[in-house]
């Protein structure tokens, strides 16, 4: 390598980094323009690791709704059923730490962290034994919360819970490397922005999560894009923990030991969901389950009326 090469490479690297930085700033600024997630009745719980955004609606027995842990997730996920549920329940919808409009500190997010959040929220905000509806990966949070402090939780409804085998996967060299790469300030953020573009969300919804692709609204795509970019690059840290498998935890022992009533509501269009739910029943035969026709991973979005009917029965 001659003497002229080094300055040229340094200049090229600097220009590339500046270009990535400019693209990153553009992505974050344009993704949060519409403020779809903003709600006039929002409240904030001052937790030890940051402010937790939540809404409270209705009166009656308390009901806590936990959104999925997918990138871009937030309480927005429950928008089609929360008003109806609030007719008979005191409904709390929260954005978990690292998601939605809650704070997003630079830290490693784990199942245990979220279990502590849910239990602290139940004790300090709800103040009564509460029912929980948990979606996707957050089902493991609900189960572990029941196991760790059974006096805080009443009954639990799981919407398309994550497979037990997937939850048993722990961080390995490959997932740690992926987390390290995405955590990088400029390059990692650039890769994250490419993975959380609106087109990426549309494609993922079509291929993996929705039974009826025509139900994927532009507002929903925008909401997920906004949640994955608010307020800035800090939004990526929950996702890097997710892909790094730091949010995973085995829950078989908890399923065997807890005495709570557990119900599973699932979309029949979700791949392998029958096998997944049967595995839950293998470890706790008292669990009841029901499938929703013409729905995939989000039955409460694709078939809200049918989902509400089952929720009313279980609750």
UniProtKB/TrEMBL annotation:
InterPro entries attached to this UniProt entry: AB_hydrolase_1 (IPR000073), AB_hydrolase_fold (IPR029058)
Query: What residues does the AB hydrolase-1 domain cover?
Result: 63-308
The organism sits in which domain of life? Bacteria
Q: Which GO terms describe its molecular function?
A: hydrolase activity
Q: Which Pfam families match?
A: Abhydrolase_6
Tell me the keywords, alphabetical order.
Answer: Hydrolase, Signal
* Record-given protein name: Alpha/beta fold hydrolase
Its source organism is Candidatus Eisenbergiella merdigallinarum
């Amino acid at each position: 390598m001659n003497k002229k090469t080094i300055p040229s490479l340094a200049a090229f690297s600097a220009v590339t980094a500046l270009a990535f930085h400019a693209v990153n700033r553009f992505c974050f600024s344009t993704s949060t323009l519409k403020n779809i997630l903003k709600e006039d009745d929002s409240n904030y719980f001052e937790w030890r690791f940051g402010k937790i955004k939540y809404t409270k609606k209705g009166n009656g027995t308390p009901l806590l709704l936990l959104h999925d842990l997918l990138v871009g997730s937030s309480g927005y996920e429950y928008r089609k059923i929360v008003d109806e549920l609030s007719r008979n329940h005191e409904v709390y919808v929260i954005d978990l730490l690292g998601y939605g409009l809650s704070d997003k500190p630079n830290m490693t997010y784990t199942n245990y962290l979220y279990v502590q959040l849910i239990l602290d929220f139940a004790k300090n905000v709800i103040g009564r034994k509460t029912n929980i509806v948990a979606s996707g990966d957050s089902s493991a949070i609900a189960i572990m919360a029941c196991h760790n402090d059974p006096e805080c939780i009443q009954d639990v409804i799981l919407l398309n819970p994550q497979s037990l085998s997937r939850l048993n996967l722990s961080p390995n060299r490959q997932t740690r490397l992926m987390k390290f790469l995405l955590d990088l300030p400029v390059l990692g953020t650039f890769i994250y922005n490419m993975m959380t573009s609106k087109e990426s969300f549309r494609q993922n919804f079509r291929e993996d999560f929705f039974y009826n692709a025509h139900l994927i609204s532009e507002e929903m795509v925008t909401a997920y894009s906004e949640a994955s970019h608010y307020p800035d690059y800090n939004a990526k840290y929950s996702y890097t923990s997710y892909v790094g498998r730091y949010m995973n935890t085995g829950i078989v022992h908890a399923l065997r030991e807890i005495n709570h009533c557990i119900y599973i509501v699932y979309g029949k269009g979700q791949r392998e969901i029958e096998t997944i739910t049967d595995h839950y029943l293998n470890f706790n035969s008292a669990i009841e389950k029901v499938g929703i026709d013409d729905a995939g991973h989000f039955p409460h979005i694709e078939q809200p009326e049918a989902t509400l009917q089952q929720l009313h029965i279980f609750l």
